[in-house]
Design brief:
The protein is an alpha+beta fold. It has helices at residues 5-22, 100-108, and strands at 32-38, 41-48, 60-70, 75-81, 87-89, 95-96. It has one domain.
Length: 116
């Protein structure tokens, strides 16, 4: 069972607003935050322009976090990227019907796992 369309739209709107506010307008030519949806998950990724012309024009992408929807409970949970770029359940289980508490945890980043 997939994310209900209204739930997906509301969550994506909140995540996109979060991404928009994290990077000031004057820095967006150097770094962007973007959200993408795949299946029951919304992934937040940091994007940066190529640092050398030798690597071509494509921006690099690094996953920051993932919010996963559980259709059985109707809740979202938070996942963080490890050093091997695998997504693991966040050490402090947060389950919520709304993505706002998960975004607040990413923003606060009490352990430095998301922003370093």
């Amino acid at each position: 069972m997939a994310i209900p369309e209204l739930v997906r739209r509301a969550a994506l709107k909140q995540v996109e607003a979060f991404c928009e506010t994290r990077v000031p307008p004057h820095a967006r030519d150097q770094v962007r935050l973007e959200a993408s949806v795949r299946g029951d998950a919304i992934t937040i990724a940091e994007r940066r322009p190529p640092w050398s012309p030798d690597f071509g024009p494509d921006w690099t992408s690094q996953r920051i976090a993932q919010l996963r929807y559980d259709p059985d409970s109707g809740t979202w949970s938070l996942f963080a990227r490890d050093r091997n770029d695998r997504l693991l359940a966040y050490f402090k289980p947060i389950r919520s019907r709304d993505v706002a508490p998960l975004l607040a945890e990413i923003d606060a980043d009490p352990t430095g796992i998301f922003w370093g």
